[in-house]
What we know:
- InterPro entries: PAP_assoc.
- The protein is mainly α.
- It has a single domain (12-202), classed as Poly(a)-polymerase, middle domain.
- The chain has 7 helices and 3 strands.
- The longest helix has 16 residues, at 12-27.
Amino acid sequence: MHLELDINVNNIPGIYNSHLLRYYAELDPRFPALALLIKHWAITNGINDSMNGTFNSYSLIMLLLHYLMCGVKPAVLPNLQYLFPHRFAQFVNLDTLLMNADIREDLPQRPPNTATVGELLVGFFEYYATFDFDSLAISIRAGRVFHKSELAQNQQRYCIFIEEPYDFQNTARCVRHIEPIREAFRQTALALKHPNFTLHDIRVNPGTDEVE
């Protein structure tokens, strides 16, 4: 079994992020399933390489979270930082972070999203194929997109801006080459319009698990 791990040393926001992502993954199994597919797609399309000016893996997860919160109706995931600031805000003491609490009963009632993993994957690519990265920034914390003109002057220069949920910096600051990213989203969204497309046509390998 091959297992990759990230070791966190003196990176406090990283601990909060891991805590937040764990709860999102627990709320809906479609989120981690989609994350694996999208990461593989990005690798095979050459846009998951922060050393060479494209996305790091964390930014891909943030793109997916934004889509599941704001890009599909009804939303797949709620905004946990807004609903539970006492659990997911940046001022929560690290010693009090709860890793196994069940928050489902505390969630407000909302209409369910019954889309399959496959349907959500199609929607993800269609959403970002037309997303205006030049003008808009993404905030998971606020659960919205906003115009880059609202950013500090030194942050408006980035090709893509995805706000880190805890230190508010740009998780996509490594992106220097936006055209390959745009083209990958566009070509994938176009391929998905073919009535007989498969995941292999869009350079995604689902492995042994069936994706409906």
